[in-house]
Structures are given as C-alpha cells and as structure tokens.
Design a protein that fits this description.
The protein is mainly alpha-helical. The protein contains 25 helices and no strands. Helices cover 74% and strands 0% of the residues.
Length: 458
C-alpha cells in the first residue's frame, strides 16, 4: 500500500506539473463544497440582518423594505446557487491562465449540460397537478392496505416511489416523492430527527431505486453503453438488491420512529391535504392526464437529445397553457435553480478527473466500492462512474463495485446524486430555513449502511 500511495502521489504530481491549473480548480471546488456546509449560517445571518433593518425602519417610521445586505446573504445561502457562484472565479481564473478562447472552448465544447436541461424539464413536468395526482392514486392504493394513515402514506411513498425512478427517471421520482411527502407528511410538523431521517432515507432510496433498468439513473447511464449493460443485467445484479435494501431501510426507520409516526394523525383530513392551497377543484380529465404522461415518456426517451428535449418542452408549455383549468406551472423557480445547481456542478466536475481517475484505478474491489462511495459524497455519482469508464482493463467485478459504491453513496450529501437538489428545493422550507449538511449525512447514514450490508452480503 505505501508503494501504491507513493506511485499515486508521483502521478498526481506529474499531472500537476503538466497542468498547474488542476490545483487551482480543485481548491475552488473544495471551497464550493465548504460553502455548502455554511449555507444554513448565511440564511440565519440574512434573517438577523433583515430583522435589524425592519426594527430600524419601524423606529424611523419608514416602510419595511428588503435590505441589500440581507438579500445578498440570502442569495449566498441558497445551496442551489453555490456551485454556479463559485464557477465565476473558476472561469475568471481559467481565462487568466489559459485565455478567453480556451475558456469558451471548455464551457462550450467539453462540458455536457444535457443532464441539467433534462432535470429542469422533467422536474417541471413531474410537478404538475395531473402527474402528481396520478402518482398519488398509485401510492394511495398501497397506503390504503395499511389503513390510509399518515404512517401508511409515509411508508408507501418512501418504499414505492423511488422504484419509479427506474422507469420515469430518478429526477421525476424524486420530484413526485418530495411533493407527496410535503402534502401527506411534512405538513403534520414531524420532529426534526424524523424530518432528517425521512430526507436521508428518501435520498438513499431514490439513488438505489433507479438501478432496475439501464436508462433511468444518471450514474448507470454513464456506464451502460461503454460496458454493454442492459436492463436484464441491471435487474439481476443490482435491481433485486435495491428493492430489498429499500424495503429493509424503510421498515427499520418506520420501526424506530413508530410512536411519532403513529401519533401524527391530526384533525385535518387527508382528503383536504391531498390538494395544494388554491388548486382548482375541477377534476382532471383522463385524456389530459394521459397527455401529460405522454410528454413525460417523450422526455425520457429523448433525454440525451437537447434539441428534441427543449422542443418537446415548448410544445408542453403550450398544452399546459391550453389546459390551465387543470394544471399550470406556477413556480418555475425551483426547476431552474436545480438546473443551475447541476450546471455549476458539471463545470467544476470537469476539472476533477485529474485526481479521481488515478485514485479509482489503484483500488482493489472492496476499497473501490468504498472509495467510490466516499468520492460520491463530494462529487455527483454520475461523474464517478463516468471516470470509471476511462480506466483501462477494469474487470467485471470492479465495474460492479464502483457502480454499487456510487449509487449507495448517493444520499449522503445534496451533491452526491443529481436528483437530490430537487428534493432539497421542494422540502427545504420544512427545515427551519435550510437543511444542515451534517444532519442530512446522519439521516442518510442508517439506510446507507443497510444498503452496504445488502449489496455486500447478498
């Protein structure tokens, strides 16, 4: 091991010598990751600064206005903008080192923003009323088997909806699950430990729930074609283990918080909670729901063709406007913020291969499994699996190990898996201003450990 470590350090030193900007880019990326840990603190400071400004305005008899300092602190406290914000100094320094032409070449010709565009489109589609109601009816049939209580809905959403990620893609599954949890669970004011346990469980379940097929999970998409993996391979090697891990984790967390979950019934009826505030009460015609579902199917099929993707979305916006009585996209901010988050992440990620690739290539099977998991916590897991495809002569067991580690570690942080920012954006308002990264990690730790046991022992 010391010899391997020395060889690794020599290769990294050689790569730094060949391209000194590697170090600069990684330092900036590290600062961006560090920034995510202080996002909640910036939000807290924003509230304090605005409260002080309001008190001063009241004392002087002036109207209350948003303060510039408070708004700036709120802006830098938005986790979704962190990586885009730090992309600015990265690109400025890249221009200083390489020139503006090389900077344009890097952004335009070497980075693929298709996934970010796809997430914006699929998140907007999946959050519309017809699609959420369709998913809700499916989950309701499972929840009714257990009495239709809040605990039954909680279990059905977390155990079933992540598996939809293997069909309609993980970002869509995350969006639907988060919306249903918001309407059926978080509105009942659970305790803070249960909130983080639920969020961590959701992130882990969605990350591994997309492995039943070869076309829906971003980290699987990266390797499916180069390694010639099809859905039959995914189901036989990953899928059944994922189902067991999801059910086991959800059951254990359900048992751990059984008293609180069983006591969460309130006087507010579930039927009332099933409709967003201000939503139209006009029933959605079946043909409208089926057309929305067709748009989602079209988007999934054309996920890797940006022109067809955006073109189809424009047609959808026209249809959505025509059927405004049943559903209209009212808040486009969240999908855009999530897309901005992912776009910023891939800009940084393009400069991290210089050290991730050599690390992966020097690990044996078990260390590779855990190494991929740890690296995933600090990089999108799709980047980890993509870099694994560039490692020459990687054996079949090693390929499986790196993908297993990448998907299992996909719930540990908000940046570990592409759909996580969608869940963060939709559920963040229930976490006292911002989701704390360490608490999220702890909330995801138990289901992550259970997934490790299932994938390593079965």
């Amino acid at each position: 091991m010391p010899e391997q470590a020395a060889t690794l350090m020599q290769e990294l030193a050689s790569r730094i010598s060949t391209e000194p900007f590697n170090v600069v880019a990684t330092i900036i990326f590290g600062l961006a990751v560090l920034h995510t840990f202080f996002a909640a603190r910036f939000m807290e400071l924003s509230r304090h600064v605005q409260a002080r400004s309001d008190r001063e305005a009241d004392a002087a008899g002036r109207p209350r206005l948003p303060g510039v300092a408070a708004e700036l602190l709120h802006f830098v406290g938005e986790v979704e903008v962190v990586f885009g914000l730090w992309a600015v100094p990265l690109l400025l320094l890249l221009a200083a080192f390489k020139g503006w032409e090389q900077t344009k070449h890097y952004v335009n010709d070497t980075i693929d923003f298709t996934e970010a565009v796809f997430v914006v489109v699929i998140m907007a589609l999946a959050s519309t009323r017809p699609i959420v109601e369709l998913a809700e009816r499916m989950v309701a049939s499972l929840a009714r088997l257990a009495g239709g209580t809040t605990a039954a809905w909680w279990f059905a959403i977390l155990a079933f909806t992540p598996l939809l990620g293997s069909l309609i893609t993980e970002p869509a599954a995350m969006t639907i699950a988060a919306l249903l949890l918001s309407r059926r669970f978080f509105v009942r004011a659970p305790s803070l430990p249960l909130k983080y346990a639920t969020l961590g469980l959701l992130f882990v379940n969605v990350s591994i729930g997309g492995t039943l097929t070869h076309f829906a999970a971003p980290p699987v998409l990266m390797v499916a074609r180069p390694w010639e993996w099809d859905s039959a391979f995914m189901l036989s090697h990953f899928g059944w283990r994922s189902v067991i891990a999801i059910l086991a984790s959800t059951l254990i967390v359900r048992f751990w918080f059984r008293r609180e979950l069983d006591d969460m019934q309130t006087r507010t009826s579930l039927e009332e909670l099933s409709r967003p505030k201000g939503a139209a009460t006009v029933p959605t015609p079946t043909w409208v729901t089926m057309t929305y579902a067709a748009f989602i199917a079209y988007t999934v099929v054309n996920a890797h063709y940006p022109v067809l993707l955006v073109g189809g979305f424009l047609f959808f916006l026209g249809f959505d406007r025509a059927t405004a009585a049943y559903s209209t996209i009212e808040d486009f901010r969240m999908p855009l913020l999530v897309g901005f988050f992912l776009a910023g992440l891939v800009i940084h990620g393009g400069w991290q291969g210089w050290w991730i690739g050599p690390v992966l290539s020097r690990l044996s099977e078990v260390p590779l499994f855990y190494g991929a998991m740890v690296l995933t916590a600090f990089n999108d897991n799709a980047l980890i699996t993509y870099l694994a495809t560039l490692v020459p002569n990687l054996g079949d067991s090693m390929k499986i190990a790196v993908v297993e580690g990448a998907v299992i570690g996909g719930g540990l942080t908000v940046i570990a898996n592409a759909p996580n920012p969608a869940g963060y954006a939709l559920l963040g308002r229930y976490f006292d201003g911002a989701i704390h990264p360490l608490r999220l990690f702890l909330g995801a730790l138990l289901p992550t450990l259970i997934a490790i046991l299932v994938f390593q022992l079965l």
